[in-house]
Amino acid sequence: MVLAKAFDEMTLAGGACRDAYKGLSQWLQWTPTDFLRMKRQEADVLFRRLGITFAVYGEGGDPERLIPFDIIPRVLSAPEWQRMEDGLRQRVKALNMFLNDVYHDQEILKAGIIPEKLVLNNSSYLPEMQGVDVPGNVYSHIAGIDMVRVGEDDFYVLEDNCRTPSGVSYMLENREVMMRLFPALFAEHRIAPVDSYGDALLDTLKECAPPKTTGDPTVVVLTPGIYNSAYFEHSFLADQMGVELVEGPDLFVDDGKVFMRTTQGPQKVDVIYRRIDDTFLDPLTFDPNSVLGVPGIMNAYRSGQVTLANAVGAGIADDKAIYTYVPDMIKFYLGEEPILKNVPTYKCGEADDLAYVLDNLAELVVKEVHGSGGYGMLVGPAASKQEREDYAERLKAAPDEFIAQPTLALSTCPTFVESGVAPRHVDFRPFVLSGKDIRMVKGGLTRVALRDGSLVVNSSQGGGTKDTWVLEE
Fold this sequence. Notes:
Blueprint: H1 22-30, H2 33-50, E1 54-55, E2 64-65, E3 69-76, H3 78-102, H4 107-110, H5 116-120, E4 142-149, E5 155-161, H6 168-181, H7 183-187, H8 197-207, E6 219-222, H9 231-241, E7 244-246, E8 251-254, E9 257-260, E10 267-268, E11 271-274, H10 297-302, E12 307-309, H11 320-323, H12 326-334, E13 341-342, E14 346-347, H13 351-359, E15 364-368, E16 378-379, H14 385-397, E17 402-406, E18 412-417, E19 420-429, E20 431-434, E21 438-439, E22 445-448, E23 464-470
Parallel strand pairs: 3-23, 5-13, 6-7, 6-11, 11-12
Antiparallel strand pairs: 1-2, 4-5, 4-20, 8-9, 9-10, 14-17, 15-16, 15-17, 18-19, 19-22, 20-21, 22-23
Helix pairs in contact: 2-6, 3-12
Protein name: Circularly permuted type 2 ATP-grasp protein
Pfam families: CP_ATPgrasp_2
Domain Circularly permuted ATP-grasp type: 73-449
């Protein structure tokens, strides 16, 4: 499934402009390059002033860096968005049903739909959560689903992020900066707003408060602290919701309940939007050396005295080998055909798939099943012969740790680069909120590979971001 030519989201094969991009295309034709360059510099100043940085440690130099921002938005039509939203709602519903199932009756394993060893022997599956009931059976309250487009109606899910998806702050701030830079351009388009996300997130978290909660639930955001790469986002989201940003030492457990230290004395906490990995959450249950978490919080959680979002153990749904079974989950739990496609994936733990992958490394992308951020993967067409040979040895040594996918020609959008406006490859991460209802704002984080020909969009690997416009009908 290697595509020879990338799908151009703005321009049809004959050179005509797609309807969704017509207004933007005219604007680009009339706008001088020097003006765009000046606006890009203004954007950098705004992002720096707002403190919107991304921490990258271990590479030397200043670890606090701006994520490159492209001033040309990506545009989706209302019908394109509606199909995507329908598919995302279906997918996230099934993923939450899967998480509830594997931590309770394990019906999907008993039915042989997913191999038991793939779940029960997985490091992301936490036996400590077996039999634990969570409010509303919601495990992934905030899901970020990475998608790519390869054709007119071909949107593929690349991976699921059900543990601690990041990037929503950049979606919101990208929109804010674009509105400041180009108010006249916004006036010419009917663009769906995204600024209700903070309210929607708070409503979702409150809906998942423990059943015994009385009055308005107290929600906090739990961060590892200022040295975390996504600390800006933690602070930003706490501010958007109007709730406290706390670190582990700000919380304590007493009489089986969680409290926050305040200047007015202890305050009971009902819901914790935690941005700390499972391993560091409770030194009494997981890593005894962790100073980031709260001793005893797991006992309070298991007894239903506090809600943790996302749920402990939700990371099993992030696993790239589990990803291959999501279409089967949708059929098993919902009795429906998947609306969104998976990227065809080879499971290297299966002998036939491994043999095919080893024979075709030059054409495939190979990923670690627990990997993230673009690290640890092999992009076959861009790798040297020696790199492919070295990676093949890793595959042979631990095949269960890898999956492989065709090298998709990700769709392109017009992007402002040093040479002017040029197409660059993009992906997309919309955010899905699950409480009593499933909520989405019409937008998401578009990531763009700024280097010509590159398919790697991750910010930690040199990618940038764009504002994403969903047009109102």
